[in-house]
Design goal:
Layout lengths: L1 H23 L5 E6 L7 H13 L2 H4 L1 E6 L4 H10 L4 E5 H9 L13 E17 L14 E3 L6 H12 L9 E3 L3 H9 L5 E6 L4 H7 L5 E3 L5 H9 L4 E5 L13 E13 L4 H13 L1 H5 L23 H9 L4
Parallel strand pairs: 1-2, 1-3, 5-6, 5-7
Antiparallel strand pairs: 3-10, 4-7, 4-8, 4-10, 9-10
Amino acid sequence: MKKVLLFGLAAAVVLVFSFVHVETCPAKVTFVTIGTGGVTGIYYPTGGAIGKIVNKKRKIYNLRVTVESTGGSVFNVNAVMAGDLEFGLIQSDRQYQAWNGLKDWKDKGPQKKLRAICSFHPESIVLVAGDDTGIETFMDIKGKHVNIGNPGSGQRGNSTDAMKACGIDWNKDLRAEGLKADESAKFLQDGRIDAFFYTVGHPNGSIKEATSGRRKVHFVPVTGACIDKLVAKWPFYAKAYIPIEFYPMAGNKENVDTFAVKTTFCTNADMPDDVVYAITKEVFDNLEDFKKLHPAYGVLTKQNMLEALSAPIHPGAMRYYKEVGLK
């Protein structure tokens, strides 16, 4: 009888400690990384803003968001597809091209595991030129020394789209550079280039640097009948303008017309639904706080954040949108 009692007592002690262990053992934290862009652009602070909002609830979701500076849209798509990044910020045109196997994905084929979550701010196609270059209209870049963006970047894709639409062969009609976006301002101010393209939201630190130096510069309108046809042809392009209020040292006195894409937030189809749901919910439920984190977010609404998504919406995000009546 004593043996039975002792055995029962021992079993009870083991059971109690088992429960104590389960209750005090911390749940495993899931770490996810958002691929952004150069540190002077808006992709990087956008990734940081998402992380700041979501990480406030990290103990609830057991989720930790980190941010990585990358080469931009094409890099982010490929890294997300390869599983090297969990999420990526991607221009709306690049999302369309990746999903359909166009341009940089022509050889790889359609990226059918790409999934969209939402879109953020518009990114206007900016053309900055020195006042001493004679570049006053878009067509004036012919014969000039112009940075069209590094291969795989958004600005390279948008600038070459614009040039092709307007009959400019960048291989022959100008001296093209392939600099990264954050190198452009210094090269322009040093007189090593005449102008540069940059696809970006506003205000932007690199554009401020370019317009605030000793060399006087101005924004060149990216307009014309050829640009109108380009915007009408592709659903990911829209008319836009550069708000001159953010760049008081530029030579322009009024907003400058151009066209734009949108920043979109994407992931892989294999990303767990609960992770995507948590991130989507925190961003949308706290949208007013999110909008305070950067001036570029001022135009955001829950409705326009579902625009320009050409890849299927991830089920985790769709679950949230259906819950709140957005879909």
